């Protein structure tokens, strides 16, 4: 029972700026705010032309701590530094706030300002595209597949209620 409660709390008990629950389902599999961060990575790719993996990881980590060397997302944002009027230190600081409150940072706001079209803002959440692996998984599956599967079950439960 405790494990079930922990899973539900992990899924629902944090403030997430999502318009649809499917993004929380993606976060459950990929990490809190991964869907929001993947949308940021997509915006960085659009603004910089540098393809990024939409995995929700804004910094590179080494043994659970941010690595000294920048990762691919940080390097791509640095390419935009002049356009978003941000130093490498500001970029690192804002990316390190990749949890709650990241959408209030200068870097987040200015990257989206580059890609938002009048009347058509860029998505603020996309499902992370992370391959899933396990000895029990025998075919190629992704976080996207997982989130859509949970969404279908969620909708079925709502219809029964």
Topology:
Layout: H1 2-12, H2 22-30, H3 34-48, E1 61-62, E2 65-66, H4 72-79, H5 81-84, H6 88-96, H7 106-115, E3 131-132, E4 141-142, H8 143-160
Antiparallel strand pairs: 1-2, 3-4
Helix pairs in contact: 1-2, 2-8, 3-4, 3-7
Brief summary:
By secondary structure, this protein is mainly alpha-helical. It has helices spanning 2-12, 22-30, 34-48, 72-79, 81-84, 88-96, 106-115, 143-160, and strands at residues 61-62, 65-66, 131-132, 141-142. The chain has one domain (2-160).
Task: Characterise the protein shown here.
52% of the residues lie in helices and 5% in strands. It has 161 residues and is mostly helical. It has one domain. It has a two-stranded antiparallel sheet. Strand 3 (131-132) and strand 4 (141-142) form a beta hairpin. The radius of gyration is 17 Å and the shape is globular.
Order of helices and strands: HHHEEHHHHEEH
The strands making up the biggest β-sheet line up spatially as: 1-2
Helix-and-strand structural type: mainly alpha
Number of strands: 4
What count of domains describes the coordinates? 1
| Straight-line distance between termini | 22 Å
Proportion in β-strands:
under 5%
Shape: globular
Largest sheet: 2 strands, antiparallel
Number of helical regions: 8
Average pLDDT confidence is 90
Highlighted features:
161 residues, globular, two-stranded antiparallel ribbon, mainly alpha, 5% strand
